[in-house]
Specification:
The protein has 456 residues and is mainly alpha-helical. It has a single domain (27-455), classed as Proton glutamate symport protein. Helix content is 75%, strand content 0%. The chain has helices at 30-53, 64-103, 107-139, 147-156, 158-168, 174-179, 186-192, 203-219, 221-224, 227-262, 266-271, 273-299, 303-309, 311-320, 323-337, 342-355, 358-374, 381-397, 406-415, 423-455. It is globular, with a radius of gyration of 22 Å. The structure holds aspartic acid. Aspartic acid (ASP) is lined by residues 321-323, 357, 360, 398, 400-405, 434, 437-438, 441.
């Protein structure tokens, strides 16, 4: 493990800051990662035990005592942790990106870093979707779901499915989606960026604003220099707040896991076993094979060491199901544990937390093909290519929050004529898959940052 080389820091990139509370510099992973892992295990096992000891009533209504414990203890614990992080995601995204861009020094360097990031993002996502589509066509998980099971799942999740479809119907045309990346009112975009209620491009629009701001600063370095220490001060303050949240992480994560496993429907898991297995196998292959090859071949790093160094980000992503909530941890491990240049990590990870989601792209591809198989919609090769391309693009447009990809899955379903309400079939297992795909998304961001770090 090494620190970012001092020579690599440039004016405008934040000064070195000791890792936030709970991490120990000098050892990959550190104590916090073990504590979070323990929280995951304790919460998960306690939830599974509670699930077995307090089963739902004969009419399927959840056990009253268990519902009370989840609503009043586990969920608030998890929410305190998540909200403390979400509270500072926007100032973090803004300051990290502005300082990252300003720290790159000149616009040509930014262009080089931006172009490489884009190329790696598209290449990684294309690999992940190719793996997903191949697996879905080989395993054909949709053929393992009977009509009776399909009806039962559809009934159970009909309400939630209708709500999601209604949200997705507000989706815009490609032209408007692209135009909306340029915010009319960045403050309004910031207000709705985390819950999808912003009028334009949401987090992407906030990032665009930060990018333009950073470019402008680097074009007039002398007159904008006084801003740099101010932005650095905000950035460091935010990291201290994240440190507070991370102290709570083991407890918060235990709460999140308990809430998930206490109501885990094993009947649903069994019904959707083939689908879940297909997604998980795809994610595993992408994680182990594609990332290892890229890390070894492009970034010149030892993959095993890299996974150990990023383990704190891995468990945080798994527990929170949110790339945005994992951004502070990802930034820290990328710099302090992997030793990437801070301005490269700031730029690539911040943009990547919303725009690079290979795990999500793979999941979207498999889900659309699975639902097409369930409904007997025979997708031609051309339509499958459409699904693949749209999944890559949808991965870029997905918000880095839990369940952020669902509206985009609905869009892809509709574009190839699969009934969008079918999304109800998979909602029962979505959180579990979300934890896994978010892990792949976050590690993908750090892997791309490592590749860009080596090649620029
Ligand atoms: N939860 C994912 C993330 O934050 C997005 C998704 O696939 O729903 O990366």
């Amino acid at each position: 493990m090494s620190d970012a080389p001092a020579s690599a820091r440039t004016e405008g990139s934040p000064e070195p800051e000791p890792p936030a509370a709970g991490t120990r510099r000098g050892r990959a992973g550190g104590a916090l990662h073990w504590q979070i892992l323990l929280g995951l295990l304790v919460g998960g096992i306690a939830g599974l035990l509670a699930n077995a000891l307090c089963p739902p009533g004969p009419d399927g209504t959840p056990h009253a005592g268990l519902t009370w414990a989840v609503n009043n203890v586990a969920t608030p614990l998890g929410q305190i942790f998540m909200r403390l992080i979400f509270m500072v995601v926007l100032p973090l995204v803004f300051t990290a990106l502005v300082l990252g861009v300003a720290g790159l020094g000149d616009v040509r360097q930014l262009g080089r870093v931006g172009l490489r990031t884009l190329i790696y993002t598209v290449a990684f996502s294309a690999c992940s979707v190719a793996i997903g589509v191949t697996l879905a066509n080989t395993v054909r998980p949709g053929l393992h779901l009977g009509a009776e099971q399909r009806r039962a799942l559809n009934e159970r999740y009909a309400g939630q499915a209708t709500e999601k479809v209604a949200q997705a119907h507000q989706a815009k045309s490609l032209r408007d989606a692209l135009l909306d990346v340029i915010p009319r009112n960045p403050v309004q975009e910031m207000v709705g960026a985390l819950d999808g209620s912003s009028p334009g491009g949401g987090m992407l629009a906030v990032m665009f604003f930060a990018l333009v701001f950073g470019v402008a600063m680097s074009l007039a370095p002398q007159r904008t220099a006084p801003l740099i220490p101010v932005l650095e001060a905000v950035y460091h303050t935010v990291l201290v707040v994240v440190g507070f949240a991370m102290r709570l992480a083991p407890l918060g994560v235990a709460g999140l896991m308990f809430a998930l496993t206490a109501f885990l429907g094993f009947d649903i898991l069994k019904m959707l076993g083939w689908y879940v297995l297909t997604v998980l196998c795809g994610l595993l292959v992408h994680f182990v094979v594609v990332y290892s090859v890229a890390l070894r071949g492009v970034a010149g790093l030892n993959p095993l060491r890299f996974f150990r160094q990023t383990s704190e980000a891995i468990v945080t992503a798994f527990a929170t199901s949110s790339s945005n909530a994992t951004l502070p941890t990802a930034l820290r491990v990328a710099e302090y544990n992997v030793g990437l240049r801070r301005e490269i990590a700031s730029f690539v990870l911040t943009v990547g937390s919303t725009a690079n989601q290979n795990g999500t792209a793979l999941y979207e591809g498999v889900t659309v093909l699975f639902l097409a198989q369930v409904f007997g919609v025979d997708l031609t090769l051309g339509q499958q290519v459409t699904v693949a391309v749209m999944s890559v693009l949808a991965g870029i447009g997905t918000a880095g929050v839990p369940g952020g990809s669902l509206p985009l899955v609905i869009m892809v379903l509709q574009s190839v004529g699969v009934p969008a309400e079918g999304i109800g079939i998979i909602l029962g297992v979505d959180r579990l898959l979300d934890m896994c795909r978010t892990t792949v998304n976050v590690v993908g961001d750090i892997a791309i940052a490592a590749c860009v770090n080596r090649s620029t």
